Amino acid sequence: MSKPTLATVWLDGCSGCHMSFLDIDERLLDLAAQADLIYSPLVDRKDFPDEVDITLVEGAVSSEDDLNKIRKVRAHTRILVSLGDCAITSNVPGMRNPFGVKSVLDRAYVENVTVPHTLPSKVIPVLLEHARPIHEVVPVDVFLPGCPPSADLIFQTVADLLSGREPHPGIKPRFGA
Ligand code: SF4
Question: Residue 105 Cα, ligand 1 centroid: separation in angstroms?
């Protein structure tokens, strides 16, 4: 029988949640014995698969690219997990929300540079007016709080989900970096 499938996705986050996932250390081998990681920044695969059992998503939805990606992820994922405070509240990416896109881009690309520059029109994804938590855009099944969530919390939650159990409530998340 084939193993359940696992994916991780990186939207607008600092990668700290993925680093915490890697901090599972040798227990990654336990997870690898129970599931196949078929899509991730850690895996060389470009397109999101047609069917994934569990997808952990780091980061807020901040750009049109993020929006398209999370819609596709939701459509092809059985259990979608918001991984970390940026995914759950928009957290750090959301700090730009009160200022508006234009003033943020001006600050980054015009006011704070020593060499004259213009706003980028290629390659950089088009920003949404606000960075938004994932559950404001698509339904989320499990929330894993923390900045980042601890490796223990990530491991226990994924192990519980793979075993068909309710995620373990006994491990306390840590808030704020
Ligand atoms: S929740 Fe914290 S660690 Fe995770 S992506 Fe956001 S800022 Fe980084």
Answer: 21
